[in-house]
Recover the amino acids of this structure.
């Protein structure tokens, strides 16, 4: 069998098919309604959180999603983190320094110096380090943030 026989039927196209993850949502509840039970633990109202999540999952960055929701980028980052999105204003090496600081292994001053990050970024990274995502809230919007992660990895 020669190459021409092996390659028979292979076509070259100028465009690729766009492939997306299909999200199966078995609830009729809106994102706001799904987040309502967490109003007391999220850093913003459920309707603002829902707006931020929808914009963010549609591809907007944190700042744009925050603006659409009428929130600060810090509040939006905290909200996304609590909903299970891996967001942090610092990289993994700097997050390890922040972890050292929150564990008491170095001072705040030393952490700021070692990361060379802005103070607000360090404080937000400390929030991410010291607050675990809310498992029930993650389940409430299951699939929405996963769509963003899949698109980002394409």
């Amino acid at each position: 069998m020669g190459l021409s026989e092996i390659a028979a039927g292979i076509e070259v196209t100028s465009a690729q098919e766009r492939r997306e993850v299909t999200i199966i949502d078995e609830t009729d509840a809106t994102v706001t309604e799904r987040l309502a039970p967490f109003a007391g633990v999220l850093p913003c109202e459920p309707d603002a959180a829902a707006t931020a999540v929808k914009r963010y999952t549609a591809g907007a960055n944190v700042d744009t999603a925050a603006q659409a929701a009428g929130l600060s980028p810090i509040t939006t980052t905290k909200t996304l983190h609590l909903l299970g999105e891996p967001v942090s204003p610092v990289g993994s090496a700097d997050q390890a320094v922040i972890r050292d600081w929150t564990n008491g292994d170095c001072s705040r001053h030393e952490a700021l110096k070692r990361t060379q990050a802005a103070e607000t970024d360090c404080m937000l990274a400390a929030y991410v380090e010291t607050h675990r995502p809310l498992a029930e809230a993650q389940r409430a919007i299951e699939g929405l943030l996963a769509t963003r992660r899949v698109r980002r990895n394409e």
Observations:
- The chain is about 55% helix and 0% strand.
